[in-house]
Write a structure and sequence with these properties.
The chain is α+β, with helices and mostly antiparallel strands. It has 19 helices and 32 strands. The chain is globular. Mean pLDDT is 91; it is low at 98-105.
Length: 607
């Protein structure tokens, strides 16, 4: 399915809004999209038909559960998990006789259709070919999303690299900052396959070929984000999901193969002998700016595209955003492999949007022996992208882990003096709360054997430290007391625990007083590192969720980012032009609400 065909499908399903008025790819498109994606149900996909660069821009294409299912070619996301469960069950079940084995033959024939296939000649993605000086990134409507971003960023790139030792392809999604018409950054985190390939080419003293595909069948971009095992081709997953092979053609200036039906291909190389360059800042999926750092530079040798190309883009920032629905699909698709390969006890998995994928995961599991939750937690923290998880909640198999009511009941009833599981390990390098980049404490909460009696949650307001304001809004439901204090106030956590007879006390900056419970969950998970910010006194856990502004204290990070919000000028522009867009009822800018959280001007706190 081409992106043009997907647009037609969305429109026929009432899931698309065409915006025919001219718009700017610098800040304006992102602000419109942020308003829509945060509206009820994720809003609709947006096709900006008249941009300042000529090509149409499609945003929010994955931004609802329904559209995510449509992108993967199913009616419901549950259809995928049911299909995978059946497939894995068929393959792994005992085969007692020859007839049972014969029954696998149709499945083997079907599986042969999933593998990507190379074809000769040029594909639709090469209807227009620009090489050398003609291949200018300024021709493309690459978005600048947030006011303090270092520049324009390609946000849905499918970055193709080849393992030089084994010849195996990897397709990953790594943001790309545009430096000029012919170079970009290549944001390869140290834990990612692209970075491993880079190091392999560097060890060989060789230039690294790279090809970046944009658009095409929406399943391609999803597959590039999926946590498939290393050395497994992402286009095999795409073929499995679609039930047909991905057809590939060779690039015009290197030997990498890309999907023949994508919309754009940016070809080039990374010179591994070249010094890395400063990239960033960037308003990231954490809801904060990821700050400047050094990454490889990508040099462009060609840009090819379809004649009717549409440029797909996503924005990331304070949740919920489009990536929450991508994570929802991943929960469904990879639950069956998790059971098969790692943790057969696992019944269900849920990554709330407030956890921005890595910070919070909730698991329901079958408990066959005492403390089995510890085995599951430690196993998951050592597996694939789950190694980035910071907070893990483990519940009984019968729990509806998406039910706020059921989770609240467990949280009220747990005994924290015996149910906390502490560890340490790898973090996403974008996590700003830890003093050591990419490494920090982890906590799991074992809720699998919670007693039926619930703790009576109270607090003595007069016993709290002076200068601290309390909110008991979550006290009865979650056994959580929320406190607000000045950022630099020295607080006696033991005194606070004695004043609060409840399971959880969480201290936030005063500027967070207008946030909802879900927003506090996002902020608390993002701003904390368990080994530094958690103190357990008796059976009360006190958490310091305030910003850790850098000081001489080595336990604090050396840098602290600002939250991501639009600038006042862009908000005012979109307010003024709203009726021109034809989107419907006015949607206020979410950024106005989050302005209270900003620490200063710019991407980074500077004192």
């Amino acid at each position: 399915m081409s992106i043009a065909e997907f647009i037609a499908t969305l429109e026929s399903a009432g899931e698309l809004i065409r915006i025919g008025t001219p718009v700017s790819s610098e800040l304006e498109i992102a602000e419109i999209t942020d308003r829509v994606v945060k509206s009820e149900g994720g809003g609709k996909a947006l096709l900006f038909e008249k941009t300042d660069k000529g090509f149409p821009v499609l945003t929010n294409l994955y931004g609802s559960e329904r559209r995510m299912a449509m992108a993967l070619g199913v009616e419901r996301l549950e259809d995928i998990s049911e299909r995978f469960n059946t497939l894995i069950g068929t393959v792994t079940s005992p085969k007692e006789n020859f007839i049972d084995k014969l029954r696998l033959l149709p499945l083997l024939g079907e599986a042969s259709q999933w593998f990507p296939r190379k074809r000769k000649g040029r594909g639709e993605c090469q209807q227009v070919v620009l090489k050398g000086e003609e291949a200018k990134l300024s021709l493309l409507p690459i978005l600048k999303c947030w006011p303090h971003d270092g520049g324009r960023f390609v946000t849905l790139p499918m970055v193709h690299t080849i393992d030089p030792d084994r010849g195996i392809r990897n397709v990953g999604m790594y943001r790309m900052q545009v430096f000029d018409d012919h170079t970009t950054g290549m944001h390869w985190h140290r834990h990612k396959t692209g970075a491993r390939h880079y190091e392999a080419y560097k060890a060989r003293g060789e230039r690294m070929p790279v090809a970046v595909a944009i658009g095409g069948d929406p399943v391609y971009a999803y597959s590039a984000t999926a946590p498939v095992p290393d050395n497994i081709d992402e286009y095999l997953l795409a073929g499995l999901l679609r039930g047909k092979p991905v057809k590939l053609v060779k690039c015009v200036t290197n030997d990498i193969y890309v999907p023949e039906d994508c919309d754009f291909v940016i070809e080039g190389y990374v010179d591994t002998a070249e010094e890395k360059v400063l990239e960033g800042d960037f308003g990231d999926h954490t809801g904060f700016y990821s700050l400047k750092d050094y990454y490889p530079k990508f040099h462009i040798t060609a840009i090819t595209h379809r004649r009717d190309a549409v440029y797909p883009a996503t924005i990331v920032g304070i949740p919920p955003q489009e990536d929450a629905y991508i994570a929802m699909a991943t929960e469904r698709i990879f639950l069956a492999p998790i059971r098969l390969v790692m943790q057969p006890e696992v019944e269900d998995m849920y990554m709330p949007a407030a956890g921005t994928q890595h910070n919070i995961t909730i698991i329901s599991m079958r408990q066959l022996y005492e403390r089995q939750a510890s085995k599951v937690a430690l196993g998951l923290w050592g597996a694939g992208q789950m190694m980035f998880n910071k907070y893990l909640l483990l519940t009984p198999a019968t729990t509806n882990i998406r039910s706020t009511k059921e989770m609240a009941a467990l949280m009220r009833s747990c005994d924290l003096s015996s149910s906390l599981i502490r560890s340490e390990g790898i973090y996403d390098v974008l996590d700003h709360a830890t003093p050591t980049c990419g490494f920090g404490g982890k906590v799991a909460l074992d809720l699998t054997a919670v007693a039926k009696s619930e703790r009576k949650s109270t607090f003595d307001h007069t016993a709290l430290p002076s200068g601290v304001e309390a909110s008991d809004e979550l006290l009865e439901e979650w056994s959580a007391l929320i406190l607000f204090a000045d950022n630099e106030s020295e607080l006696n956590f033991e005194q606070i625990a004695k004043a609060a007879d409840c399971n959880f006390v969480v201290v936030f900056d005063r500027r967070a007083q207008e946030m909802t419970a879900q927003e506090l969950l996002w902020l608390g998970a993002a701003n904390t590192e368990p080994s530094r910010d958690f103190e357990l006194h008796g059976s009360t856990l006190v958490v310091d969720a305030r910003a850790k502004l850098p000081t001489t204290n080595s336990k604090k990070p050396s840098r602290w980012p600002n939250v991501v919000t639009a600038d006042d000028a862009t908000i005012a522009l979109v307010d003024k032009r709203w009726s021109e867009y034809g989107i419907g009822e006015f949607i206020a800018s979410p950024s106005r609400h989050y302005k209270n959280l900003t620490l200063c001007e710019g991407a980074e706190w500077h004192g």
